[in-house]
Amino acid sequence: MMSYILKQREGQFLLIGTILLVLGFISFTNPVLSRLFFYAAIFFLGFFATKDAVIETLKDKSPNVDLLMVLAAIGALLIGYESEGAMLLFIFAGAEFLEDFAMNKSTRAIEELMGQVPDTAQLLKENGDVVEVPTSQLSIGEVVVVAKGAQLPIDGYLDRTTTVNEAALTGESLPVEKDKGEEVFAGTINEGNSIYLTVSKTSKETVFSNIVRMVEEAQSRPSQISRMIDRLESKYVIGVLLAVPVFIILLMLIGSMSFQDAFYRGMVLLTVASPCALVASATPATLSAISNGAKNGILFKGGAAMEALNTMDILLSDKTGTLTFGEFKVVDYQVPERILKEVVFMEQTSSHPIAEAISTSYSDLSLDSVDQNEMVEEIVAVGMQKGDIVVGKPSYFDTFNDPNGYRKQVEQGYTTIFVGQGQEIVGYFVLADQVRSEAKYAVGQFQKEGVDVQLITGDNPKVAKLVSDEVGIKSFQASCLPEDKIKRVQTEHQAGHVVGVIGDGINDAPALAGADIGIAMGSGSSVAMESADVVIVKNNLAKLFYSYELSGKLNRIIKQNILFSISVIVILVILNIIGILDLPMGVVFHEGSTILVILNGLRLLAEKDTQENTHQESVEVTSLKN
């Protein structure tokens, strides 16, 4: 705390002013010296408040709360209450500095994010030398060297296969294999051997820099309540400035007070009626919630999105990439081993997701017996062929003989691939799109909170039903085109619902933009993320429910703060009218309420996901994609 005070000019002035204030009280036996100390203390303690009051009033053409405090201190000086004026500015300056310190804590999420990316890189020069340069100076196409165990300083393409730990981006603790030519991202860790990385984005365009940019933009976009309070602030201050002289005159006429006593009470009113706590009711809490969300992998594009999330009562969810991984896995097969080796060899030549799933599932299978010189051909929109062996869609095999009855054994709704030799079906593969382990948990928790989660997908009804049954969704709409999704959003709007939409593809962008709360998965398209209000960076749907709860806590804290701050103002004004509140005590209670409101909002920084371990448990896969 002391180091923070000494580093900031406001803190330095506060420290000097505090010392002068103490000297003023110590020198009470020498009235002239004591008064000089108080005057000097007032200068240092009131310097930044006066500066902000003048600049912001002229800039915005409307008065603010700082102006009220400065006028109250000046008023105290005019009637010979130098010590009270200095005390007023001491407590006000102290509260303002504590507010800045607290607000600084709520914005440290950006520094923490940036701290996960190295600020220097090992650049490989054309002559073979390796030099250390700032990442900000790297250009697209340059090559950097990343040692084993080091963080990647920039986004780029690999020159060889390696293992990368992407926990900082995706939240997945297990490292993933990355092939030659595949793009990897800054902030992740190279757990393989040393690699050469061809820069694909500048430091300002990397995935991490975009995350930081979104957090910064979110913190600069006020919530609806903050905007409302800001609009009321100037009008309220003007009202107080008009009320104070009326109050002084009434005390002199009706209360028969002297001008000095009435003016003193007017300065107390000017102080306690200031809406400092009310102004601080929403912004610190909102920034804390946004920062907490960023640390947990949820980015909100502004305070309004953070506030609104808890108000939705319908969540329309896409399937592929949202409830499921969008990655196939072989869950059943019947193929003779000799034919299986041929099929695996054929599929290794294709980049189709189904081919990759089959070749990955049998990657340890020896292919020495396969004639690797025989040509593998692609049958457009069907599959692959090598000699008399064909693997592809079931519809292609309608005229083939099926002596083993494989057509009857295959369950409807699963992704099925047949294998044929000659004119006979000799085997099949059944593949599944894996349901995300946390999807069932998240859906169940949302439904407990009264949010109706529904599935809207472009897949066929059988697949949609399988996935819905697995994750616990009761209502689904299948075979949806992008225009069908946006129409569904409009229909729910007309029914009076607050609609959230979650998706990851370009086809989801219209619905995301049209929803009350658009939510994009971080692994999705850039168009979807730009169209959304909320981005789930770590692809963990359970984190969305955590943020839903965080949004609810934010709204409750803001309401608590507003009620508390208004109550304190009303009570202090009444006590002043009665005549039992002096200026120092008024400042203590008034600024104390401001500090309490700020600290109440900062509680959201310490919020943690208590269910984090529970919803990470794996879920048995039964939902498949076609």
From TrEMBL:
Subcellular location: Cell membrane; Membrane
Listed Pfam families: E1-E2_ATPase, Hydrolase
Transmembrane segments: 12-30, 36-53, 65-81, 236-256, 262-282, 562-581
Membrane topology of this protein: Multi-pass membrane protein
Entries under Gene3D superfamilies matching the protein: Calcium-transporting ATPase, cytoplasmic domain N, Calcium-transporting ATPase, cytoplasmic transduction domain A, HAD superfamily/HAD-like
Chain ranges of the P-type ATPase A domain: 117-216
Entry keywords, A to Z: ATP-binding, Cell membrane, Magnesium, Membrane, Metal-binding, Nucleotide-binding, Translocase, Transmembrane, Transmembrane helix
InterPro entries according to UniProt: ATPase_P-typ_cyto_dom_N (IPR023299), ATPase_P-typ_P_site (IPR018303), ATPase_P-typ_TM_dom_sf (IPR023298), ATPase_P-typ_transduc_dom_A_sf (IPR008250), ATPase_P-type_domA (IPR059000), Cation_Transport_ATPase (IPR051949), HAD-like_sf (IPR036412), HAD_sf (IPR023214)
Main location: membrane
PANTHER family in alphabetical order: CADMIUM_ZINC-TRANSPORTING ATPASE HMA1, CHLOROPLASTIC-RELATED (PTHR43079:SF1), PROBABLE CADMIUM/ZINC-TRANSPORTING ATPASE HMA1 (PTHR43079)
Family, as annotated: Belongs to the cation transport ATPase (P-type) (TC 3.A.3) family. Type IB subfamily.
Protein name, UniProt field: Heavy metal translocating P-type ATPase
Record organism: Ruoffia tabacinasalis
